[in-house]
Design the sequence.
């Protein structure tokens, strides 16, 4: 491993749409090298800045680094905001290390696969929240080479509405959106539904019955992910499995210890660690390995910006138990503008990781400045 001595750290926040902000951490070394990681937590940029104010001085205190994973392992996060900053720093440190060896991060870590199956998350690009709007997005994604699709259609459902006994009525509009997406992609495509923790167990039972009739591949995060809900999730998982569906979740979990009770408690078939929150590359690898030992599939959560996408592609080429990577489909052309469009296209539902050294992406300074949500915050040694 090379030695990495840091000169400065910068936090960038950029405005993508009226509902989306992306956040990035850029590291610059004393020899002029630089790399970037992503820390996006939409709507929580102030908390990200506060975490960075506390954590970056620790980063400089530990520099230089001979082990790019050292900072993440020495600084267990206190909350998801810390986890996002620590994970972004870790992405960038590993990218610098791989750059020093002139190879992509996947090759640096050990490639297990070159072709990476992906699925299109069409939710955020679908501004028209009608069945036709979802069908149109699905067709656009299919035309772009996708064979698997995910929607988050239950806008009208909340846990409070479910507790009042009105959840089944509230989910009908969402089911109409799912049915339209199914008709658009045909009977053979993989279609998943994301519930965003909006349901209770009783309403989820009815949802799963309805989803089975639409040939859904997985149901994602129906219940709030608290340990008290593990028995209910295990029951819902069994119900899904009885109709050849899967239950998926844990996209915001931090470090393996927070995944473990759910994984060992049989809550899910598919685990969805996010490189932005899991606590870094070691924690992503550890989580994937432990899930594989338990017979669980790993499908990394990846519905945000291009740096997270690059890191997720690199990691997806290396993980055991890997199923399919989420891809935020066509939310904004800024996705490619920010990093100079280094990504391969989608062919038959698959793509490949960037082949440039490190993560394979760099931020375009002019584009960052054009879309900045606030002034960049830079710390220097």
Sequence:
């Amino acid at each position: 491993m090379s030695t990495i001595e840091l000169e400065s750290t910068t936090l960038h926040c950029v405005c993508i749409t009226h509902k989306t902000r992306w956040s990035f951490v850029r590291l610059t070394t004393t020899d002029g090298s630089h790399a970037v990681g992503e820390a996006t937590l939409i709507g929580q940029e102030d908390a990200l800045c506060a975490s960075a104010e506390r954590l970056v001085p620790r980063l400089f205190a530990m520099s230089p680094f001979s082990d790019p994973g050292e900072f993440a392992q020495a600084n267990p996060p206190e909350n998801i905001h810390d986890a996002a900053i620590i994970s972004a720093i870790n992405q960038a440190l590993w990218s610098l290390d791989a750059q020093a060896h002139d190879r992509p991060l996947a090759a640096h870590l050990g490639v297990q696969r070159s072709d990476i199956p992906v699925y299109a998350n069409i939710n955020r690009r679908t501004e028209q929240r009608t069945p036709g709007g979802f069908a149109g997005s699905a067709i656009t994604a299919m035309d772009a080479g996708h064979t698997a699709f995910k929607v988050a259609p239950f806008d009208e459902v909340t846990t409070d509405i479910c507790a009042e006994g009105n959840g089944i009525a509230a989910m009908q509009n969402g089911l109409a959106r799912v049915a339209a997406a199914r008709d658009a992609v045909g009977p053979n495509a993989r279609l998943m539904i994301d519930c965003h923790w909006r349901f209770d167990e009783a309403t989820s039972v009815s949802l799963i019955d309805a989803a089975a009739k639409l040939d859904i591949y997985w149901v994602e995060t129906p219940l709030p992910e608290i340990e008290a809900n593990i028995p209910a999730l295990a029951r819902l998982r069994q119900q899904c499995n009885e109709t050849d569906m899967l239950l998926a979740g844990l996209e915001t979990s931090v470090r393996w210890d927070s995944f473990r009770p759910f994984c060992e408690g049989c809550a899910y078939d598919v685990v969805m660690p996010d490189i932005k929150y899991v606590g870094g590359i070691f924690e992503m690898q550890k989580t994937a390995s432990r899930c594989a030992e338990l017979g669980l599939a790993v499908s990394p959560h990846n519905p945000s910006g291009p740096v997270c996408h690059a890191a997720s592609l690199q990691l997806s080429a290396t993980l055991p138990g890997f199923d399919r990577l989420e891809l935020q489909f066509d939310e904004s052309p800024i996705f490619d503008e920010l990093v100079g469009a280094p990504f391969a296209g989608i062919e038959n539902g698959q793509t490949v990781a960037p082949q440039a050294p490190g993560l394979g992406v760099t931020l375009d300074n002019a584009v960052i400045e054009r879309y900045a949500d606030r002034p960049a915050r830079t710390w220097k040694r």
